[in-house]
Design brief:
Number of domains: 1
Shape: globular
Number of strands: 6
Distance between the termini: 43 Å
CATH class: Alpha Beta
Helix content: 25-40%
Strand order of the largest sheet: 2-6-1-5-3-4
Structural class: alpha/beta
Radius of gyration: 19 Å
Strand content: 15-25%
CATH topology: D-Maltodextrin-Binding Protein, domain 2
CATH architecture: 3-Layer(aba) Sandwich
Number of helices: 5
CATH superfamily: Periplasmic binding protein-like II
């Protein structure tokens, strides 16, 4: 009987570790610390990062920035914010250009660390990184009233 206790505890511990590891990653929308208010709805966020919306509500210019095309952050952003794949996004920009629509494509940076540095240094900047990569150099924007880790958060 005593030999079953360590086995049971090991199985329980393994279950707990697997449960945490199976949690889907969450994106955090990060902005410059000076950004007020620190909230946006998902449609507004999509427009800003796609380059359709060129100004924040306060009139500050939007500077969208994104991680490289092969990064997991970018893949999750494509799925949860844009709701399209890379091919559809390329078609979107080609069609916008063809129709004479003014859009500003997001600036590509090399990593989540580079994205945070860019956002920290530019008041109108906005970008998406994993919530686990957020530090005190940037502010997390609430999306539809929720932040990463809160009930109802949509960017996972």
């Amino acid at each position: 009987m005593k030999s079953l206790v360590p086995i049971a505890l090991s199985l329980f511990a393994g279950f707990c570790v697997c449960s945490v590891a199976d949690e889907p990653p969450e994106l955090a929308v990060v902005v410059n610390k000076s950004r007020v208010p620190a909230t946006a709805d998902l449609a507004e966020l999509r427009q800003m990062i796609l380059g359709d919306r060129l100004k924040w509500r306060d009139g500050e210019g939007v500077l969208a920035v994104q991680t490289p095309p092969d990064s997991p952050e970018r893949a999750l952003m494509m799925k949860t914010v844009f709701k399209m794949n890379d091919a559809a996004l390329k078609r979107y920009y080609m069609l916008a250009t063809f129709n004479g629509k003014e859009v500003v494509m997001p600036r590509d940076v090399s990593s989540a660390a580079a994205l945070k540095k860019f956002v920290a240094g530019n008041p109108g900047a906005v970008g998406c990184i994993f919530a686990s990569d957020v530090d005190d150099s940037v502010k997390v924007l609430k999306v539809d009233g929720a932040a990463p880790g809160e009930p109802g958060y949509k960017l996972r």
